[in-house]
Each structure stands twice: as C-alpha cells, then as structure tokens.
Amino acid sequence: MACEAVLWAGWFEFLENRSFDLRVELAPPRQPPPPEIVIIDIDNPSFAALSQAIGRWPWTRLLWSDLVKYLHAAGARAVVFDVVFAGREPDADAEFAQRLQEAGNVTLAFAFVEYEAEFRTDVANPVPASVPGAVALEDGAGLPLLSPELHKPDLPVETLATAARRLGCITVHPDPDGVVRRVPLFFRRPEGYYPSLGVAAAAGAMSAEEPPRLAPGALQWGAARVPIARDGLLVPHWRRDVTAYPRLPMWKVACSVFPDVCAEGAPSYKPEDFRGKIVFIGASALGAFDVMATPVDPVTPGVLVHAAVLESLLQQRAIAQPPEYAVHLLMALLTGVAVAAVWGFRSVRRSALVVLGAVLFYGVAAVEVFGRWELWLPVAAPLGALVVSFVGQSLTRYVTTGRELRQTRQTLLRYMPPEVVDHIMARGGPDQLRGERGIITVMFSDIRNFTKMSEKRTPTEVVEILNHYLDAMTEIVFTHHGVVDKFIGDGMLCYWGAFGQADSHARLAVTASAAMLAKLEELNQNWRREGLPELGIGIGLNTGEALFGNLGSGRKMEFTVLGDTVNVASRLETMTKEFGTKVVLSETTQAELGDGIRTRFLAEVAIRGREQKMKVYTLE
User: Fold this and answer.
1) Of the candidates 117, 321, 344, 354, the residue with the CA atom closest to the CA atom of residue 233
2) Is residue 413 part of a domain?
3) In this structure, are 105 and 120 located in the same domain?
4) Residues 242, 385: one domain?
5) Among 315, 336, 352, where does a domain finish?
C-alpha cells in the first residue's frame, strides 16, 4: 500500500527515468539508422566562417533560398528546416518563398511557446486566432489540449508558411528533471492537430492516403505501426554515437552551393550525396541552437532529437511502455517474492540473498528486454515494492516470530555448539525435528563415588565443585561439536552425529573423552591445592541407531535422544569399574575410528537385554 501511494504521488518517476538513462547506455540500438537521413550541421566552424562572410546570425534568407534550390536540383527527397523563420526580411522573403514553392518538399519549423500574461495584450504581436499547418488525425489516445491562452505559436512569416509544403512543431516537454526522453508526435488545439517536425518530415515517406491514427500504445499510419508511450508520446532510440547520422558541416555544403566563392580545392559535396535523402538543416554551434538535455547528452542539438523521431517513424521501431496495470502486477509479484523470502527462510541472510538475487535478476532482465524487444519495463516501482516489502516483513518477523526464534536459539545454545544450533534453525527449529532416526555416537559419563564425597561436604561446596566440573566438561563437548542432552545427577548424556559430522562422530566422541580426562586431571590438581576432594569419572561410548528430536506431546515435550544405543552406552559406563579403566567403548564405536587412535581390547561381554555378546575396548 505504501508503494502504491508513492507510485500515485509520482515519487518513483525520478528513479524510473534514471533507470531508463542507464538502459540507454547499456543497451544501445542494435540496428543502424536509416541511410536516407542526412543533417546539414551549422557547427562552430561553419558558424564562424559564414558569420564572417555573410554577417551575424541569423543569416540572410537568400542563403537558404539558394540552398533549397541546390538540394531540389540534387534530387533531395525532402528538406526539413529546424529553424523558425519568424520576422520579415523584405529583400529575401519573396525569393525564398518562390524556392520553397518550386521545391514542393520543404518543411518549416514552428513552436508553441508558453507565455506570460503581458504577451496576451501585446498589440504588436497579437495571438493568432488559428495556426496554419493543421492535419487530419484520429485521436484515440486523448491528447491533452493546448490552451490558446497559455501557448503562443511562434510561426514563420505568413509568406513562407504558405509556400512551405508542411509545418512541423519543434516544441518538446522535458521530464521534471529537465531531460527529454519522450517526444510529442502531435499537438492538439481547439482548431485541430499539429504534427511535430519529425512527423512532418516523415509524412512524405509514409505513402499513406488515410490520416494517421493515434491509439493507446501505437501510431497507425497506413501499413505502418509505431509503438508509442502514454499520452501519445514517442520514446525514440537515443543514440550516443554523434556520428550515427551523417552530419555535413554547413561551410562545406556552402562550398557546394557557391563553388566560386570558396578557395580552389576546398572540400565540398556532390549533388548525388543528397539524392533521395531527407535533409535536416539545424545548428549545433554554441549560441545558435536550442539546447536539450537527453539521456545521451546534457547538451543535445534539437535537430538530433527530431532526426531520432524520424528514424523511429521510418523504421517503425520505438521504445514501447507496458500498460499502467502491468506496473501494479509487477509490484504485486515482487512483493510476493519478498514475503516468500522472509517467511520461507529462517535465516535473514538467506532471505536477503534471495531478495538481492531478485533485484539483480530483474535489473538484468529489464536491460535485456529493453535492448532485445524494445520494451521499457518499469524498474523503480516494482523494485521499490520488493525492497520496502522485504524490510517491512523482516521487521514484522523480528518483533513476532523472530523474538521466539531468538529465544529458542539462546535455549539451544545451552545444550549444543553454535554450528549445531545453526543446523537446527536452518531446518525450521527444534519444533520441526520430530522423531528422526540416525546413526550417532552416544557418551555416558558419571562421577565415581560422588554420593560418598557429597556426604562429607556442605551442599554449597558440592554444588560449587559439581558446577565447575560440568562447565568444563560441557565446554569440551561443544568444542568437539557434540550435543549435551542432559545432566543426570552427577552424570552427563551427550551425543554426536545427529546434526552433521556423518563420517566423524565416533572419532569426535573419543577425542572429546580423552580431552575430558585430561581436563579432569587439571581440575584435580587445583582442587588438591585448595584442599578439596579429587574426582574420578567413567565414560561409556557406543555407536548405533537412535531416535532423536522433540519427543512427547501436549504440555510436556523434551528435545532428547533415546533407544538401545543409549542404554548400551549407559551400561558400558558402569563397566569402567569392573575393568579398572576410565573409558569403555563398544565394538561399533571402535570400528568407526579409523587410523590414528589406538585402542586396546578388553573382553567380550554380555549386555543385559541383548542376546549377542559385544566386544569392548578402551583407549591406550
């Protein structure tokens, strides 16, 4: 819900636009631009040279008159001026208009300019009641209406506007961050619809008798169909390569038009270089053109923007956007991924890795879809929903079930080492470990003559000695990856192999037993110095199948281990007194030890409750 509110408020727009810019950089267009687009570029050298030869900018229209005549004679398919010829030039307008009429394929530019209230009462420049150049259009997209009270047309002088084949609007609407990513194709006013400069340039090439039709998601123009974004905007292929369209410096073209005024051998172009071409005439010189920030360059000449629109129309290829409902579906889908990641894994680290993987996968997929299928998948809102949902669900889990899991973990750490606890928690916690069977090694240890010793000491002294002993032995069991099942009076029940160590549990149990005996010797030395009694222990070890996990039901449950293997380990511990040794291990444990641990055969003994005798061993 929070992400939906942010989406409707438009706060994701900045991030979404930046993600589009990144995709433009990572996935440039795979097809070359159409070869018929050519740009005559008024670049810095041309601006300097022609301003010195002709005069300051704007140059006399006699220059453009001769240029149109030359291009017409060369067989240019269309000539498109990205220049608004506003204001009169009495000495040149008539001749320029005649050349425009003779060529019959020239498109001139105009603009809709937002203006302040003082212009509305400007007697010298009244707002025209209507604007020439309207075209027929079936508007199925519902274009926004430009109010005549708020948008003033900046038109060519009437003589030139009438003589031109078409008029095209060069107005663009940048996004809130000032970058032009989407370009209007048509502009709607009360008196009609007006094409953009790129659409006007393409009109002669579309060869369609019926008027164009704007539908949600596409511009249909005869047999041509071009994907469009919302509100009838076109997202063209933005090319980072500034040489993608042939850009002919104006000063070299001038040497083609006026060879007599250029030095002998000066570079120029042949008429066939323009034959069949759609020739844009625009400026890239500093101070002579309208600067536009685009995804590929913060300072982009407007003529390149209009050429990009024309490319999309000619190739019928543009960046499409999915319908609005697709954004909400993707948000819901990734929200589901976040919920599943949080509640499907006990480990926060695993949940975070799943979410991170989903972010990376979706980001890579968005770039691939953009480059391969020319589709602008929304990124900011779906990934925002994913991250926000993950954080929110994680906090919810932390204050609810997470608290219970942490308490369970702390409880388990009292019985087993951290790595064993991690193993249990990763499998759903102890509640999920019900009655599993497996091959384990069980240890029973008991303090000898503990009852006699306790009778001679105060209860406080007995408890202090016992706690010191049990703490030391428990630490050794944990160090050797074992589980302390329970304390039985002065005895300990421990086991290995229930949670990992499948191939080494017997060896770990035996080495832990040796370490316990060594530690007890150290404790006894300290107790002798303090005048306290020494302790002796017996240890029984047995390997076999046992049942372990949560046992019991209802109000009484216990996480423990039981079975014949446990009973045999207990009986082997009592045999340590009979054999006068500290450790007795069964033949099954001895068989699992492998090399490196030396044992000594004691005897073949009968175990109460078992028909067959068992060989028993001790450590050397």
Assistant:
1) 321
2) no
3) yes
4) no
5) 315
Residues 6+ apart with CB under 8 A from 465: 457, 527, 532, 533, 535
Helices (H), 374-479: 380-399, 401-412, 418-426, 450-455, 459-479
In contact, 202 and 172? CB cutoff 8 Å: no
Q: Which domain holds residue 563?
A: 428-619
Q: How far apart are CA 431 and CA 552, in angstroms?
A: 11
pTM: 0.69
**Mean pLDDT, to the nearest integer, of 72-77?**
96
DSSP collapsed to 3 states, 203-245: HHHHCCCCCCEEECCEEEECCEEEECCHHHEECCCCCCCCCCC
CATH of the domain at 590: 3.30.70.1230
Given a contact cutoff of 8 angstroms between Cβ atoms, the answer to whether 195 and 186 are in contact is yes
1 in any annotated domain: yes
The verdict on 24 and 43 lying in the same domain is no
Q: And the tokens for 482?
A: 């074992």
10 with 95, same domain?
no
Q: How many domains does the chain have?
A: 3
Q: Which of 428-437, 493-502, 607-616 has the highest mean pLDDT?
A: 607-616
CA distance 445 to 468: 16
Pairing of strands 297-301, 192-195: unpaired
DSSP one-letter code for 60: P
For residue 294, the cross-strand partners are 297
Q: Which of 269, 287, 315 is the last residue of a domain?
A: 315
The pair of structure tokens assigned to 511 is 């080495």
pLDDT at 5: 47
In a domain, 250, yes or no: yes
How far CA 386 is from CA of 1, 2, 330, 339, 392, in Å, comes to: 12, 12, 10, 9, 10
Task: Note whether 127 and 152 are within 8 A (CB).
Answer: yes
Q: What is the mean pLDDT of the chain?
A: 87
